[in-house]
Design brief:
Two copies of one chain form a homodimer. By secondary structure, chain A is α/β, with parallel strands linked by helices. Chain A folds into two domains: about 120 residues, Response regulator (Rossmann fold), CATH 3.40.50.2300; about 100 residues, Arc Repressor Mutant, subunit A. In chain A, the strands form three sheets. Chain A has a five-stranded parallel β-sheet with strand order 2-1-3-4-5, with helices on both faces. Chain A has a four-stranded antiparallel β-sheet with strand order 6-7-8-9, with helices on one face. In chain A, a hairpin with a 3-residue loop joins β11 and β12. The longest helix of chain A has 16 residues. Chain A binds a DNA duplex through α6 and α8.
Chain lengths: ~230, ~230
DNA sequence: TTTTCTGATGAAGATTTTTTAAAGTTTTTA
DNA sequence: TAAAAACTTTAAAAAATCTTCATCAGAAAA
C-alpha cells in the first residue's frame, strides 16, 4: 500500500491510472495541473509521483524542479516521443525514471516497483517476483515462464497478458481493459487481437488449450486467471 | 437521497430513468433539450447530471462544456456507439463517465454510485460489494455467485436478474420492470423471456427449483427475492 | 366444480460470442 | 536488406446463450 500522486491534464489517463493503481491496493491522489501538483506534494508525503511533462499552469519539468526543492520523493515523468530524456533525467530536473507516451500500464507498474525497491531495500527482492500456481511459474523479473520447471518461450504480449492476469488472480478483465493495460491505454486496434493472443498463450501453457486450467473465459465478459 | 438531473429528448428514456432512480429514493428532475438543461443546472444544485450527447437546441457536449463553466457537478454522458470517447472524457468537455446506449439501468446506477462515492470519500469502496443471504453469496464486483462457498456459473442475464432482485430484497418487480432494468429500457422483446430466465436461474441457485427459497413468484404481479 | 387465467417447463431456432485458422502486416534479427 | 518472428486483421466454424413458442399444471374467478 503506497501513496501515489498522479499528475496529468488528460482526465482519461488520470482516471485509468488511478483505477489501475488502486486495483493493486495503493492510495492514489490525482492532480490536473502544475500548481495543484505542487500543492498536493507539499501537503502530503507520497511514496512516488507520476508526472506528465506537458501540463497547464506550470509545466512538468518546472514542477519537478520545484518539488525537488523540498522533497526527494521518487518521480516518474511521462513524456511525448522525441523529448530530451537526458535533460529530464539529469541533474537539472532530477526525475528518477521516465516513460514515453503512450506507455502500457504494466510497464509503469514495473518501473514503480523497481524504484520503490531500489529506494527501500537498496537491493532487488528475488522472492515475490516469482508467481507460482500449480505447475506454472512466472518470473516477473526475468520475464520467464516455466511449466514443470521447463521453460516456455512466450512473446512479449503473451507474457504481459499472463503476468497481468496472474497478478490479479480471479479478476475478470474485459478485452477493452486488457487492451488498455497490455497494449496501452490509447491503443486503436481491434479487441479481437486479445482473443488471438489468449489462444496462443493457451497453446503454450495449457495442456489442453480447449479446456484451459489457467486462463479461463468468462462468457460475455472477458478472461481471468485461476 | 440525491438530486439528479436527467437530460434526454427521448421521453421514454427520461421517464424510465426518473422512475427507476426515484425508486431508490432520489429526487429527479427531467429536461428535454440543451437550453432547458443549462437553465435547470444553473438554478439547482444537483449531485449528478445524466446527459445525452444527442440533444435538440444545444448538443450534449456543448451543454457539458457550458455547465462546466459554472459548476463541477459530476456528469455522466449517454452516447451512441462509435462516438469518440476520448474526446468526451478528455479535458475539453470534462464528463466524469459515459455509458453507451442502450445501457442497462443497473449499470447506470453502479456508475452513479461509484462517482458519488469517489467524490464524497475520495476513494472507491472495495468492501460492501458482497451480498449474502443464507447460503447464497453474490459478489457484485467480481460478478460471481456462490452457494455454500461453491461457485455457481451464471450467465450475464441470470446474474443481472439476481443482482437486481437481491439488491432490492422483498420488492416485487413486474416482468416489464425487469425487462426495463436488466434488458434495457428500449428492449422490444417478449416479457415471457423473463420467465425463462427466472426458471434457469432457479435451476442453478435453488435446491428445489419448483419450491424456491430465494426467487419467489408473486402471482399476477411478478418476481421478488427473499 | 368448471372455466379462465397465469406461471412453469421443455425444446427448437435464432443470435451472440468465442475459438480456430489463415493470411496479411509490421517489427526484429541476423 | 532479407529472413524470421511477432503481431493484427479477417473470416469461418463452433459453442454458449438468449428468445420464442407450444404445452402443461396449478391458482383464481365464476
Amino acid at each position: 500500500m503506497y501513496k501515489i500522486l498522479v499528475v496529468d491534464d488528460e482526465k482519461l489517463i488520470v482516471k485509468g491510472l488511478k483505477f489501475s493503481l488502486e486495483q493493486d491496493n495503493n492510495f492514489v491522489d490525482a492532480a490536473y495541473d502544475g500548481e495543484e501538483a505542487i500543492a498536493f506534494a507539499k501537503q502530503n508525503n507520497y511514496d512516488i509521483i507520476i508526472l506528465d511533462v506537458m501540463l497547464p499552469k506550470a509545466d512538468g519539468l518546472e514542477v519537478c524542479q520545484q518539488i525537488r526543492e523540498f522533497s526527494n520523493v521518487p518521480i516518474i515523468m511521462l513524456t511525448a516521443k522525441g523529448e530530451d530524456m537526458d535533460k529530464i533525467m539529469g541533474l537539472e530536473y532530477g526525475a528518477d525514471d521516465y516513460l514515453t507516451k503512450p506507455f502500457n500500464v504494466i510497464e509503469l507498474k514495473a518501473r514503480i516497483k523497481a524504484i520503490l525497491r531500489r529506494i527501500t531495500t537498496g537491493a532487488p527482492n528475488l522472492l515475490e517476483s516469482i508467481l507460482t500456481v500449480r505447475e506454472l511459474k512466472l518470473d516477473t523479473e526475468k520475464r520467464r515462464v516455466y511449466i514443470h520447471e521447463k521453460e516456455v518461450d512466450l512473446t512479449i504480449k503473451e507474457f504481459d497478458l499472463l503476468e497481468l492476469l496472474m497478478m490479479n488472480e480471479g479478476k475478470v478483465y474485459s478485452r477493452e481493459e486488457l487492451l488498455g493495460s497490455v497494449w496501452g491505454y490509447d491503443y486503436p486496434g481491434d479487441v479481437r487481437t486479445v482473443d488471438v493472443h489468449v489462444r496462443r498463450l493457451r497453446e503454450k501453457i495449457e495442456q489442453s488449450p480447449s479446456e484451459p486450467k489457467f486462463v479461463f473465459t468468462k462468457w460475455g465478459v472477458g478472461y481471468y486467471f485461476r
